[in-house]
C-alpha cells in the first residue's frame, strides 16, 4: 500500500492581501489547503510544510526573519510537522525534503501551495523525477499575473497553463473536492 504525504508549499504571509507579493486567489487556495491538511492529519499522513526565504534582506518578499516570510495562520504547522526552509525555487534543492519523505517511507506526494508557475511547478517536476507518484490539488494553488514582453498573462491563465503542463506528464491533477472524495473512498 502506498505511503502518502502532503507537501504544502510557501503559503506565507507575503502572498496574502497586505503582503509584499499578493497572489490572485490565495485565500481560496489556502482554505482548500487547510482542508487537505486536516484530512491528512485525520488519516495519520505526514504533512510537510515548505517555507521560502530569500538569502538577503534586499529581497522583494520573503525577507529573512520578517512577518511576511512566516507561514500563514490558515495553514500553520503543528509542532510535530516539519517545516523545510528553502532558498531556492525547487523545494528539494539544498534542503532535507527528500530525506524527510524517504525516512517516512513515502512513495506518493500530494502538492498544494504557491506559486503555481514557480515553486509548485518545480517541486512537482522534481518529485516526479525522484520517482514519487505525484498529485497536485489545482484549486489549492495560487498564482499571479505574469508579463512577457508587452503581454500580460492573467493569473488564471498562468495557473491554467502550468496546471495543463503538469497534468500532461508530471502529475495527476484533482480539485480539493475530488481528492477528498477519492481519499474517503480509498479509506
UniProtKB/TrEMBL annotation:
CDD domains: nicotinamidase_related. Signal peptide: none annotated. Residues 5-165 form the Isochorismatase-like domain. It comes from the Bacteria. The keyword Repeat does not apply. InterPro entries: Isochorismatase-like_dom (IPR000868), Isochorismatase-like_hydrls (IPR050272), Isochorismatase-like_sf (IPR036380). GO terms for molecular function: hydrolase activity. Keywords: Hydrolase. This is Cysteine hydrolase. It comes from Niveispirillum cyanobacteriorum.
Amino acid at each position: 500500500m502506498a505511503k502518502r504525504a502532503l507537501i504544502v508549499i510557501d503559503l506565507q504571509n507575503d502572498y496574502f492581501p497586505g503582503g509584499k507579493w499578493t497572489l490572485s486567489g490565495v485565500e481560496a487556495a489556502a482554505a482548500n489547503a487547510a482542508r487537505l491538511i486536516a484530512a491528512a492529519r485525520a488519516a495519520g499522513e505526514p504533512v510537510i510544510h515548505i517555507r521560502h526565504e530569500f538569502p538577503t534582506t534586499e529581497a522583494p518578499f520573503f525577507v529573512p526573519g520578517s512577518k511576511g516570510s512566516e507561514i500563514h495562520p490558515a495553514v500553520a504547522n503543528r509542532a510535530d510537522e516539519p517545516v523545510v526552509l528553502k532558498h531556492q525555487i525547487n523545494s528539494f534543492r539544498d534542503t532535507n525534503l527528500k530525506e524527510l519523505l524517504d525516512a517516512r517511507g513515502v512513495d506518493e506526494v500530494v502538492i498544494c501551495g504557491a506559486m503555481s508557475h514557480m515553486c509548485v511547478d518545480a517541486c512537482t517536476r522534481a518529485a516526479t523525477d525522484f520517482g514519487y507518484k505525484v498529485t497536485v490539488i489545482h484549486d489549492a494553488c495560487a498564482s499571479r499575473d505574469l508579463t512577457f514582453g508587452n503581454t500580460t498573462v492573467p493569473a488564471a491563465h498562468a495557473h491554467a497553463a502550468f496546471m495543463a503542463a503538469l497534468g500532461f506528464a508530471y502529475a495527476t491533477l484533482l480539485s480539493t473536492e475530488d481528492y477528498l472524495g477519492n481519499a474517503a473512498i480509498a479509506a
